[in-house]
Design brief:
Layout lengths: L1 E4 L7 E3 L2 E3 L3 E4 L2 H9 L3 E3 L36 H10 L10 H13 L1
Antiparallel strand pairs: 1-4, 1-5, 2-3
Helix pairs in contact: 2-3
C-alpha cells in the first residue's frame, strides 16, 4: 500500500478517488497513484509490496507557446474591449477607473512601460 502526501498538508477530501485526511492517504490504485504523482503529490511506495503503475499513453507533446508580445508590439487599437480586459487580466494589470477603450489601452501601455 502506497502512502500519499498532498501538497497542502491541511487538505481533507477526495482526489482521483483517493480519500485524504489532513494531507495524507493510502491507496493501492495504480492509476490514481500515477495521476497523483503527475499532479504534484508525494508517493511513498516502500510498503510491504511495490506499486506497479499501468502503462498509460504518453501525452502528446505540444510545442511551447510563443511568448506574448509586449504591449508596445501589439496593435492594441485592433483589439476589442473584451480582448483588452483579458490581456490586462493575464498580465495582472489594474484597470480600475478605465471605462473606455482608450483608457484601457492607456492603462495597458502604462503598466507595460513601468
Amino acid at each position: 500500500m502506497a502512502r500519499v502526501t498532498a501538497p497542502n498538508p491541511e487538505f481533507s477530501g477526495s482526489r482521483f478517488g483517493v480519500r485524504f485526511f489532513n494531507g495524507r492517504a493510502s491507496t493501492d490504485d495504480a492509476i490514481a497513484i500515477g495521476r497523483l504523482l503527475r499532479a504534484g503529490y508525494l508517493v511513498d511506495d516502500r510498503g510491504d509490496r511495490p506499486v506497479q503503475t499501468q502503462d498509460e499513453p504518453e501525452p502528446e507533446l505540444t510545442p511551447e507557446p510563443e511568448p506574448e508580445p509586449e504591449a508596445d508590439q501589439l496593435d492594441l487599437e485592433s483589439l476589442t474591449v473584451r480582448e483588452l480586459v483579458t490581456l490586462a487580466g493575464d498580465r495582472n494589470i489594474d484597470l480600475q477607473g478605465a471605462r473606455r477603450k482608450s483608457e484601457l489601452i492607456a492603462a495597458v501601455r502604462a503598466a507595460e512601460g513601468a
